[in-house]
Amino acid sequence: MAEELVSNHYKMSASQWLHPKYDVKTLADLAEDEIVTGPFAQIIRYEGKLKGGVLGSSAYDFYKICIQDHAILKSLEEHPEIALYPFALYIVTHELVHIVRFSRFLQNFNASDEEKLMEERRVHGITHDILDPVKAQGLSTVLTFYGTWRTPIDGLRTIP
Ligand SMILES: [Zn+2]
């Protein structure tokens, strides 16, 4: 659902969509160094080069959205008014907006801390705009929750 909402928002056709460029994994599928304490997700950028390529375009970035189940579940325990489905929808939508913006060079992956904070607020705003018209049970509670709380919910890391 998050994929559909984000691709519609950016008016991306199926072929323009990020398909080969990212993956979403939950805790069960994460390696030890992909697990962090605190954030709900971590985006890891893997930099790669296609074999046999001579042009610069053969270099590619692959983004792995590493969902931090433990942080999400802990937060749900502390906020019983919030349900898992709309909360997870918010988080995955938010992470996909980040990746679209990285892939369109609207945001630099290695930005300064200050820029990252501004980008985080921007991405929360875009996520809100995307999800606001969506009818899903419990979603308005999540949007209200994030309406006042626009601090970073994720981390970024590059693995060459
Ligand atoms: Zn973020």
Notes on the protein architecture:
- The chain has 160 residues and is of the alpha/beta class.
- It has one domain (2-159).
- Helix content is 42%, strand content 18%.
- The protein has 5 helices and 4 strands; from the N terminus they run αβββααααβ.
- It has helices at residues 2-9, 69-78, 84-103, 113-131, 139-148; strands at residues 22-25, 41-49, 59-67, 154-159.
- A 4-stranded mixed beta sheet has the order 1-3-2-4, with helices on one face.
- Helix 1 packs across helix 3 (84-103) and helix 3 (84-103) crosses helix 4.
- Bound molecules: zinc ion.
- The site of zinc ion (ZN) has 7 residues, from helix 3 and helix 4.
Produce a short descriptive summary.
This protein has 160 residues and is α/β, with parallel strands linked by helices. It contains 5 helices and 4 strands, in the order αβββααααβ. α1 packs across α3 and α3 (84-103) packs across α4 (113-131).
For the report, how would you describe the main beta sheet? Answer: 4 strands, mixed
The side-by-side strand order for the widest beta sheet comes to 1-3-2-4
Strand percent estimate: 15-25%
- Which structural class is indicated by helix and strand composition? alpha/beta
Shape: globular
The helix content is 40-55%
SSE string: HEEEHHHHE
- As an assembly, this protein is single chain
Number of domains: 1
Strand segment tally? 4
Average pLDDT rating: 89
Low-confidence stretches: none
